[in-house]
Amino acid sequence: MTNIVDVALAVIVGLSANFHDGLKHLENKAYAQAVTNFTAVITAEPTVAEMKTLSLLYRAEAYGRTGSKSEALQDATTLLKTTDDEALRKKALAIYSAHGGELKDLRPKAGPKARMDAFFAALQKDDFKAARQILSGPLQHLVQLADKVYAAENRREGRSFLSEFARESGMFVFSGESFNDTNQTATLSISIQDHMVFTLGLVQQDGAWTAATVQDIKKIERPRPIEMANPPVTREPPRTVLRKEDVPEAVAAEIQGLIVKLGDADAMLRAAARRRLKEIGAPATPFLREQVDHADPEVQSAVRELLK
Q1: What is the mean pLDDT of the chain?
Q2: What does the alpha-carbon distance between residue 183 and residue 172 come to, in Å, rounded to a whole number?
């Protein structure tokens, strides 16, 4: 029975021979032979990942030297979509540009906004594994750290940072996208319910945009009202204190239903409930006062805000 180690060694020796022959032919300007050698390394099964990646780069160069523009572009594109090595990416970009490749054509089909839409859609479905795949780099590490903090504090049993984050996903609004095609990065401006704005930095990973950094976090300053030198004195009309018994039955039922929705997992439903309770005004007050110490922190916070 053939020893598996011997087979592996034979494969590596064969790949190494083709790789070094390819380099020799490339140096001697025997480009067709170089393409043959590098192709043998690229298509070999099994292969050595590092050797295959380098062979893609050198085959792209050999193709370019023979005037095979489309093949050179294809190899350079494959390399740019599969390697994180900055030195190799720089060389691949040079080959790609030298043969007329448009850098913007290297952008993933789904843009940054579409990817973040997919991120929040995954959160709404409690598919946190899919959501994490759209994160990378420092931002991915930050979320992992936040998950550990949530687990340590036991804020809500069985919930993670992302599951809590999902509750507020309706508050996020995306605006402008911008691209740096040379570095193959992008940014996306995001605002949070008119309170904060920040820039999300995205990078390409496995042919798709992933969110990697959060930059330029700024609090939105609301304009202050102009103060008059001698503002007119106004008196508030006396407030009518209502009892629950004084509120019509249909209105009371609506108010109680809206208070329940203040703790809904859907941020848009929570926001709509707050707006409607504000519109109802005084009749909602006695019902809200009963909930100031509600067990759900989300409901408790909303109730106290509405009673201010």
Answers
A1: 82
A2: 27
Instruction: Find the domain containing 31 and state its range.
Output: 4-106
CA terminus-to-terminus distance, the chain = 83
Query: Is 199 part of any domain?
Result: yes
Q: Say if residue 117 is in the same domain as residue 149.
A: yes
Is 231 a domain residue?
Answer: no
Lowest-confidence segment of 60-69, 88-97, 162-171, 252-261 by average pLDDT: 162-171
Residue tagged 């021979």 (tokens) = 17
- Tell me the two tokens of residue 62: 């050999």
Token pair listed for 199? 């820039």
Residue 257 and residue 249 in contact, taking contact as beta carbons nearer than 8 Å: no
Q: How far is CA 106 from the centre of its chain?
A: 19
Count structural domains, the chain: 3
Adjacent-strand bridge partners of 214: 200
Cβ proximity of 214 and 201 under 8 Å = yes
pTM for the predicted model, two decimal places: 0.56
- Whether 110 and 118 have beta carbons less than 8 Å apart is answered as yes
Question: Which of 240, 238, 239, 244 has its CA nearest to residue 286?
Answer: 244
Answer whether residue 224 is part of any domain.
Answer: no
